[in-house]
Amino acid sequence: MATGIREAILSGEFVPNQRLVEADLAERFGASRAAVRAALLELANEGLIERVQNRGARVRAISLQEAIEISELRMVIEGLCAAKAAERVTEDGVRLLTEIADDMRAAVAAGDVFGYSRLNERLHRQIREISGQRTAAGVLERLRAQSVRHQFKLAMHPGRPAVSLPEHLAIIEAIRDRDPEAAERAAREHLRSVIRTLPEADRTRPHGNGLAP
């Protein structure tokens, strides 16, 4: 139940400040009102929705300042994951990262913003898997979900793929070289770039959702 609502928020079907009516959700997902209430409580604990007195639940709108703070926290955690990935990467992991790097270069060369963003998300997920940091991975997923609208604006910001590509390639190279310090440094620099760009990207008005920076 919570998974279905969460996916609707991440896909942009449910937008910030949209009311979530228990009866409508119960009908849509074929669930009881009790199951809906439990799911909404779970998502409220994740920071995806908020309960408004006498008005029920709505999708929580994340401010620019919150998005920056989330990115600052991601900078620390993703740096840790990159360092651990550099320590633990196998030859299969190196091969997968190399394939992603090649595909990212091709997407940027072709101007495929959506394809590049999907590869971007795949890369970050692969690094988390290689790192073996399951707790960190769970935290990062919740943080990503909370700031998904700002991430989409950033992904759509003109010229962003050309900026983030070398940043991602630097992370991949450090992990393939099994250099934890360089991997953490590259991951942190990527998130610093995100933080610098967020205010400008926040002024754009993209259509759709589901992309990564």
Walk me through what this model shows:
The protein has 213 residues and is mainly alpha-helical. It contains 10 helices and 3 strands. The protein has a 3-stranded antiparallel beta sheet with strand order 1-3-2. Strand 2 and strand 3 form a beta hairpin. It is globular, with a radius of gyration of 18 Å. It starts with a helix and ends in a 12-residue tail after the last helix. This is FCD domain-containing protein. Keywords: DNA-binding, Transcription, Transcription regulation. It comes from Actinomadura physcomitrii.
List the helices and strands and how they pair.
Layout lengths: L1 H9 L8 E2 L1 H8 L3 H13 L3 E4 L3 E4 L4 H25 L2 H20 L2 H19 L2 H13 L1 H9 L3 H17 L3 H22 L12
Antiparallel strand pairs: 1-3, 2-3
Outline of this structure?
This protein is mostly helical. It has ten helices and three strands; from the N terminus they run αβααββααααααα. It has a three-stranded antiparallel β-sheet with strand order 1-3-2.
Features:
about 210 residues; mainly alpha; Arc Repressor Mutant, subunit A; Four Helix Bundle (Hemerythrin (Met), subunit A); 2 domains; three-stranded antiparallel sheet; 10 helices; 3 strands; about 5% strand; globular
